[in-house]
Design goal:
- The protein is an alpha/beta fold and 237 residues long.
- It has a single domain, classed as Vaccinia Virus protein VP39 (Rossmann fold).
- The protein has eight helices and seven strands, in the order ααβαβαββαβααβαβ.
- Strand 4, helix 5 and strand 5 form a beta-alpha-beta unit.
- Helix 1 crosses helix 2 and helix 1 runs parallel beside helix 4.
- The longest helix is centred in the middle third of the chain and has 14 residues.
- The radius of gyration is 17 Å and the shape is globular.
- The termini are far apart.
- The relative contact order is 0.16.
- The mean pLDDT is 90.
């Protein structure tokens, strides 16, 4: 769905039901190709996490709160959907991981200012309209410690698949993807919130053959850049 749809993040929130999160949880538990690639991509952006306070924003079924806690972080997953938190608790229990999960809106975080070392938003921003995204980024900046780190991971609007979808030449994607952005749009939004972008990286998808082509050509061919990885710091340091 294009970004001019007029929908907000709250309009599409109802799409995320028990079945949606059960599917994601199953992929994680079974360590499917999708789950392994997603974890590897995001982990390549994160600093060492042991002993740090880590927030997984829009945690879904808890992937990165669980992965961070496994590495020794004090990890909390935050999501607005009750079904997400139920799935996250279930997966964390089955994995024997002590991560915590809180129901909250990313645009109004129940977190003390300047108290978090690392915040990650993986497959989050594409579900946020521009206004909500701006509010979330300002909350992230408030919550981060001086020198704290934000990591974002999201599909790239400039990729050939999205280009074709916008022109109705390919089957429509996820209808909740109301906030797909290009690298430039993502960087501009993060900078506007007062954070300092450190790294912008193209990361491969999980799809066989395609990910080989993406690795080989994305450096020179923008429409082969499937996933954006961004790292930013709290800008007052």
């Amino acid at each position: 769905m294009s970004r001019d749809s007029g929908l907000t993040a709250y309009d599409v929130a109802g799409r995320y039901d028990d079945d949606y999160f059960a599917d994601l949880a199953g992929r994680y538990r079974n360590r499917t190709r999708f789950a392994r690639r997603r974890i590897a991509n995001v982990r390549s952006l994160l600093p060492p996490l042991a002993g740090r306070r880590f927030i997984d924003l829009g945690t879904g079924m808890g992937t990165f709160a669980i992965e961070a806690a496994r590495e020794g972080a004090f990890a909390t997953g935050i999501d607005l959907a009750p079904a997400a938190l139920a799935a996250a608790h279930s997966v964390a229990t089955s994995e024997r991981i002590a991560a915590s999960f809180v129901r909250a809106d990313g645009a109004s975080l129940p977190i003390r200012s300047g108290s978090v070392d690392v915040i990650a938003g993986a497959d989050l921003t594409e579900h946020l309209d521009d206004v909500t995204f701006g509010r979330v980024l300002r909350e992230v900046r408030r919550a981060l410690k001086p020198g704290g780190i934000l990591v974002l991971y999201t599909p790239n609007r400039a990729h050939i698949f999205e280009w074709l979808r916008e022109r109705h030449l390919m089957r429509d994607g996820d209808p909740s993807h109301i906030g797909l952005r290009t690298e430039r749009e993502l960087v501009d939004a993060v900078n506007a919130a007062g954070l300092r972008v450190q790294v912008v990286r193209s990361l491969p998808s999980h799809m066989p053959v395609w990910n080989i082509l993406e690795r080989a050509f994305s450096r020179w061919v923008p429409f082969m850049r499937r996933r954006i990885g961004l790292v930013a710091k709290e800008a007052t340091t």
